[in-house]
Amino acid sequence: MTTIRKAVFPVAGLGTRFLPATKAVAKEMLTIVDKPLIQYAAEEAEKAGIDTLIFVLGRTKNSIIDHFDKAYELESELALRNKTELLKIVKDTVPEGVNCVFIRQSEALGLGHAVLCAEAVVGNEPFVVILPDDLIDSEGDNCTQQMMDVYDEYGCSVIGTQTINISESNHYGMVAGPIIRDGLSRVDEIIEKPLPAEAPSDQAIVGRYILTPAIFEVLKTTERGAGGEIQLTDGIAELRKREEVYAYSFVGKRYDCGSKIGYLKATVEYALKHNDLADEFRQYLRQVSV
Question: Which of 113, 93, 94, 96 is CA-nearest to residue 105?
Fold first, then answer.
């Protein structure tokens, strides 16, 4: 079984729910306290042993490229001023031994198309897909590491899921299938954004996937689905006919940072855990609470 070394980050979306903030700034560069969403996602991959970060971008996302590039002037200035802690923070944006690859998605044809754009770099290897909008906080192993452990045990594609209120099913891809063990089931049904009455279960797909390279051939023949886009969910529905796909209910708390309320919740809760800010921020919240 091939070791998973590569992670794909589909980051070509326009971020219209955060306009006007995202008119000139990539939504993935919005910060939770002092770190952009895309960096949280990259660090999750790196901590799980990923050494190649593949960013699939739109033409307005140059700020992501700049963020992961070397900042010679800034590093020189920090070194000159002997600001060693800040210098380390800047250099650690891309740790030694980790490579970044940037691919342009020329048309906004959906998540499935974005994943397909990475084929030339991924090659014939299993890989991770991480959606930065879904910020997942875990006490122990992070979500990607948990799912990689499942892959190491079973050797097949793994989809990250969580239990939701069935009334919200039309906002998610939904899966159902027989339970393998606690937190793990086989995917026998997968539907993109079904109405609550048509949802096969209360298990919703969140922004974490481990996929075998067989997904690429499937996506090449996947027709446009919901929203007129090539849906990754539809591709996985076809993939499961050829090989087993598992759904893993990860351990951790997910923040939907693609929505304003989810973004605000993440900002508050991450600030309350920040080493330098927590006490003062908690005191402030007590003053403004009603």
Answer: 113
Strands (E), 149-202: 157-163, 173-176, 179-181, 184-186, 189-192
Residue 290 has pLDDT above 70, yes or no: no
pTM for the model:
0.92
Q: How many domains are there within the chain? A: 1
Spatial CA neighbour of 58 closest among 25, 7, 17, 11: 11
| Model confidence at 287: pLDDT above 80 | yes
| 164-178 confidence digits (pLDDT tens) | 999 989 888 899 999
Contact, 6 vs 122, CB < 8 A?
yes
3 state SS of 245: strand
Tens-place pLDDT, residues 181-226: 989 999 999 988 889 988 889 899 999 999 999 999 999 988 777 6
Contacts of 26 (CB under 8 A, 6+ apart): 11, 15, 38, 60, 61, 63, 64
Question: Does a structural domain hold residue 247?
Answer: yes
Give me the pLDDT at residue 58, please: 86
Does a cis peptide bond (omega within 30 degrees of 0) precede residue 95? no
Provide the CATH number for the domain around residue 227: 3.90.550.10
Residue 275's identity, in one-letter code, is: N
Count of C-beta atoms within a 10 Å radius of residue 15: 20
Q: Tell me the β-bridge partners of 103.
A: 56
Using CA atoms of 94, 100, 103, 108 in order, give the dihedral in degrees to the nearest 10. Answer: -40
Is 1 inside any structural domain? no
Between CA 260 and CA 61, with CA 230 as vertex, the angle to 5 degrees is 50
